[in-house]
């Protein structure tokens, strides 16, 4: 994903990240490449999801299948809910299911506002 550097004083909007990312990919990745997988790259859960959604919603031709392989951005809130305690397993499972649904929506360009 094309995002500003950590020391940049201005934070980019998801729409700016989406447009910049798709533009960079269109300039450098051949259309014959079947797919591109994004990592969260240390972004927060919300930022990684919003940026992926904006990439998929960018109004530019995207000849590749775009998807994600998020570890920390999918697990952080689950681990926080669980806290290593058996009594929190069900709550953590609910959080995981919610985060997985949000990620799915970000890939298929569905509206995330109601889920985030």
Explain how this protein is built.
The chain has 116 residues and is mainly alpha-helical. The protein has one domain. Helices cover 50% and strands 7% of the residues. The protein has four helices and two strands. It has a two-stranded parallel sheet with strand order 1-2. Strand 1, helix 2 and strand 2 form a beta-alpha-beta unit. The radius of gyration is 15 Å and the shape is elongated.
Task: Note the topology.
Elements: H1 14-28, E1 35-38, H2 45-57, E2 65-68, H3 72-82, H4 89-107
Parallel strand pairs: 1-2
Question: Could you write a compact summary of the structure shown?
Answer:
With 116 residues, the chain is mostly helical. It has one domain (14-107). It has helices spanning 14-28, 45-57, 72-82, 89-107; strands at 35-38, 65-68.
Quickly list its features.
4 helices; 116 residues
Beta-strand percentage?
5-15%
Helix content: 40-55%
The total domain count is 1
For the secondary structure, the number of strands is: 2
Low-confidence stretches: none
């Amino acid at each position: 994903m094309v995002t500003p550097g950590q020391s940049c004083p201005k934070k980019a909007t998801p729409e700016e990240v989406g447009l910049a990312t798709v533009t960079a990919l269109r300039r450098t990745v051949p259309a014959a490449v079947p797919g591109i997988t994004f990592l969260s790259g240390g972004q927060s859960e919300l930022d990684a999801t919003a940026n992926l959604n904006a990439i998929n919603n960018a109004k530019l031709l995207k000849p590749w299948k775009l998807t994600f392989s998020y570890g920390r951005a999918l697990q952080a809130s689950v681990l926080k809910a669980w806290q290593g305690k058996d009594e929190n397993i069900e709550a953590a499972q609910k959080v995981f299911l919610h985060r997985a649904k949000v990620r799915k929506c970000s890939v298929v360009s569905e509206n995330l506002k109601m889920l985030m």
